[in-house]
Amino acid sequence: MNRFKDSQHLLRLAGVFVAGLALFLVLRSALVPRSFGQYGHFRGDALAEIAARPINYAGQKTCEDCHSEIVELKHAGKHASVHCEACHGPQEKHTLDPSDVVPQLPDTTMLCPRCHEANLAKPAKFPQVDTKEHSSGEPCKTCHQPHSPLLMPEEKKS
Amino acid sequence: MITRRRLIYLLPAATMAWDFVLAGTPEASPNYAVTDHWWAMLLDITKCIGCGNCVRACATENDVPEGYFRTWVERYHVLDWPSETPIVDSPDGGKEGFPQSKNTGGKNFFVPKMCNHCSHSPCTQVCPVGATFDGPDGVVLVDEKYCLGCRYCIQACPYGCRFLHPTKHVAQKCTLCYHRITKGLTTACCENCPTGARQLADLKNPNDPIHEFLRTHAVEVLKPHLATGAKAFYNGLDGSVR
């Protein structure tokens, strides 16, 4: 009965706790991602992962690098602040391979009314027309140059 | 010499040391410092024409599934004042524009909606696993690898800006085009807004025009009484907008 001193019971119990703690720390380091807690209660690497997603819209500056003629024309007209891709769609692929990926020309019959079809909820100052009444289905570019949309002089109409 | 007992003593210390070995050197991001930015968005109701360009651009840029929206446009028809029940419609999120408004008096206007990127966001507070978070640069994001799809954040968002992706089964929302703004581009919706009704703003940049705009215009956030610290600032916001 005297094989163990009383204090050894406590030491063994302490040993179990230490082993448990060590196991916890090993599991924790294996299971919790390395960057967790880098900025707060989340995985810090997620920021870089989300930032690494590919883009589709190249951005106005990229367009202006090559198409300076159209930019000049646009800046002189009412559409100066409308970005290229707002009408021409996402062009990142075109910027990566300008010769092979050629953007399709938008159909002005569909495109222009998206913004300029009359609607009571639009700000009153915004230029609006009832397209049926205004052009009876003619493409807008018959009379308007989309990049600088005030009426074209007669001789330039095609 | 390492006895069994010594090993037990050494293990915890070794674990901690191994943590640092695994962490390696922090990734260098030369062009973007998270601490230099505090992103926000300015939405100008007086300029919105409800063309739906932002909704289409967002869907294209972020591969948003059909029928779900990270940004959308609502049309308000307010007949009386004070109006507790404004008539609101948003056919397909305003993706293809709006049909003609009925001329029955009152006010008609468009309200573009998106994640408000709250600085005290209710959605991140309820996430049980730390999958959604307030980023150090003021953008509320979702870590798709960590999200369990429990939907708690979706019901916690007072602005209804989150949804569960139908095939990935994770919560999704506006990322403020984090993959674009970290590259120096603007968001897809701002890039495509023809009237400038949406403006990306960096509140930490002293040269950003947002500061002058906030000083000189009547600007309000949605549901200010909730004190969410929303950073989607609306110019010309009518009291009936929810």
What would you say this structure looks like, in words?
The complex is a heterodimer of chains A (158) and B (242). A two-stranded antiparallel ribbon of chain A has the order 1-2. In chain A, a hairpin with a 2-residue loop joins strand 1 (144-145) and strand 2. Chain A is built from eight helices and two strands; from the N terminus they run H-H-H-H-H-H-H-H-E-E. Chain A has three domains: 6-51, no CATH class; 54-103, no CATH class; 105-158, no CATH class. Chain A is mainly alpha-helical. By secondary structure, chain B is of the alpha+beta class. Chain B is 23% helix and 19% strand. Chain B has seven helices and eleven strands. Chain B has helices spanning 4-23, 53-62, 122-126, 152-156, 178-181, 188-192, 210-216, and strands at 39-44, 71-78, 87-89, 107-114, 132-134, 140-142, 163-164, 171-172, 198-202, 219-220, 232-235. In chain B, the strands form four sheets. In chain B, strands 9-1-11-10 form a four-stranded mixed sheet, with no helix packed on it. A three-stranded antiparallel sheet of chain B has the order 3-2-4, with helices on one face. The longest helix of chain B is centred in the N-terminal third of the chain and has 20 residues, at 4-23. Classes of the chains: A mainly alpha (158), B alpha+beta (242).
